[in-house]
Amino acid sequence: MAQKKIGKQTVKFQNPPSIISTASIVGPKEGEGPLKEYFDIILEDDLYDQDSWEKAESKMLEDAMKMAIKNAKLLEEQIEYILAGDLLNQIISSSFAVRQLQRPYFGLYGACSTMTESLSLGSMIVDGGFADNVLCATSSHFCTAERQYRFPLELGNQRPFTSQWTVTGAGAAVISANGSGPYITHVTTGKIVDPGIKDVNNMGAAMAPAAADTIIQHFEDTGFNVDDYDLIITGDLSGIGKPIAEELILTKGIDISTIYKDCGIEIFDGKRQDTHAGGSGCGCSASVFAGYLYKELKKGKYNRILLVSTGALHSPVSANQGESIPGIAHAVTISNVIS
Amino acid sequence: MAQKKIGKQTVKFQNPPSIISTASIVGPKEGEGPLKEYFDIILEDDLYDQDSWEKAESKMLEDAMKMAIKNAKLLEEQIEYILAGDLLNQIISSSFAVRQLQRPYFGLYGACSTMTESLSLGSMIVDGGFADNVLCATSSHFCTAERQYRFPLELGNQRPFTSQWTVTGAGAAVISANGSGPYITHVTTGKIVDPGIKDVNNMGAAMAPAAADTIIQHFEDTGFNVDDYDLIITGDLSGIGKPIAEELILTKGIDISTIYKDCGIEIFDGKRQDTHAGGSGCGCSASVFAGYLYKELKKGKYNRILLVSTGALHSPVSANQGESIPGIAHAVTISNVIS
Lengths: 339, 339
Known about the structure:
Chain A contains 10 helices and 15 strands. The first copy, chain A, is an alpha/beta fold.
């Protein structure tokens, strides 16, 4: 068996890569939420001085990437790979952002699971001895996602209470072979789990079984107990999906309830901010990770967390052709100590 | 410097992964082209017994993946990661195909560069000690791509002579830590190069500078000469882009003309088949690699090749918003001997 593989879907790094910097940028609404103190930049206007929302999203991602590099005290030339993706068709936010950086680039698509997809592959690249510094990044934007996936905002459609609010935000992190943590010590890569849900306004329920599957597998593969973590946090299951995931995990005798949160619930004050089931989008777990989680790890509030970004792998075309919504979730252990 | 990195953008594997099997499926038109003898399955009808072209593309990819696993004499459970992507919005062809396999999955988007993107990351995962068997795959379909990127086929629009014909095809390969070659020995990962071209019917010209950039960098990083290769083959520059790339590379004093081919030119008989500048799409380099190139490597006609899949990272939205077409190209050295 491959030397760094443990169990069925997990790898344990021999030289765990260090997250040496992050950067986060969010929109005005996210900047009024409970985590506002943690973001590096809060936009005053979600057009960000660009002439389209798509260009604004790309600019937000570009600036987050550049800021993460600066925060790492590196030059752009020292970044050996960029791993990035987003929700837009042909991941144009990422490609046009990366165009400004001129570094070797692997484009990813994992829907809202992209942040941990990039951290997983980025860590493998560093631990595998292929690079010293890798930049991982992703973004989403409420206005670009709404008009691509649902309706033009100008229509003012009503949204059902199961629907989620796509986070306008970007997060970036530099992973390095050199550094003093927090470290990425384990990666559990998800399989597609499709519970057969066809309601595109209920993505939390569609993704919850995938999150549960990955978290259960993570415990099985690593032999960790719930006590080994200070926090388990999913990407964007929000108000509908989080209790489903928690219950599915409990059926295997694992009670995560005391340490389990969801980025989509944390980023907004749902009632005050009228975000229905909660936040979603690649930028949700990306900005919560790069803002809140990373900073609280550095401060020592958390010492070991399991970050599990969650993705719904459908498209408007697949939904219109009667397909259900496949879910996926990738888990990454981030720890201040190497175990 | 990271131990397996050579030069600026290249890695050299310590234990080069072996390509232990491939599989290729193409549409009826590709099955009438010059490479027809090499494909494993030629569809009689491009709907492939499905009720939409999108579902047909996904089925084609699923079947190619399953066939590659079978050809490798492995069980599905022995595949530790699937790395796949395609051209459709939210890469639905890949996600719905992978849903049928229940294996850990990283979704990729590199437009038509996806085959070598997946081979690059897949090789790093194997050489890095994270897995013994990884499945790399991609697809494209003329009918899904036309209606997504350009016009509904029913309109019967005329196509300019610079335009290319998206290949209906899927290719898959199993990369393994165990095997007797052909081996993936080096990977040179591309940067985005954007020559400012805005004509979405001239993607060959838009991608050619990226291909040239990666090939020049590959020679610089590795110290290889043109004589070290039996064949250099780009993905889908076709009739317009190939001579541009060749000339750009010549400006650096490197004359690849005697051993340089392009998958988009090889797959169709342009004049007889009315494909204008030539073939394109993720499935172009994927099926030519999995069909023709792999089989000729096994037979010893070629002993060492450089496969350079090329991608145009635009979208209809970015084009409509006035953006140019960013290009990217990833190069992979495939060799019967480990150098």
